[in-house]
Fold this sequence. Notes:
By secondary structure, the chain is α/β, with parallel strands linked by helices. The protein has one domain (16-100). It has three helices and five strands; from the N terminus they run αββββαβα. Strand 1 and strand 2 (31-33) form a beta hairpin. The protein is globular and about 50 Å long. The structure holds zinc ion. Zinc ion binds at residues 33, 35-36, 38, 48, 50-51, 53.
Amino acid sequence: MEEKLQNIRVWKELNVKDVEKHLIVVGELSSECFSCHEIGLGLDVKICPKCGIYFKYMGFRRKNPVSYLQRVKNNFPGIVFIDFEDFKKNISKRDAHKLFNTE
Ligand SMILES: [Zn+2]
């Protein structure tokens, strides 16, 4: 008999550089490729149409209901959800100047 799997969030050590390179960031209305900052991507996009990287990680700018996340996961089974706040903290620790003071 097949057991039903449930979602339990885990902490995992990730290579921040790898996450940066393969991250799609989901916002209110559309998604953004973190690597080249192409916006307007749909949630079913697995490869960035602009820079050609494939997405391995997905971060969210806001909290989403589990049902929503489940839908995304069903469309894109291989994707790894990351905590976008954790990710931002890590990259800002690493080089805040370079990434956030670009003007
Ligand atoms: Zn891109």
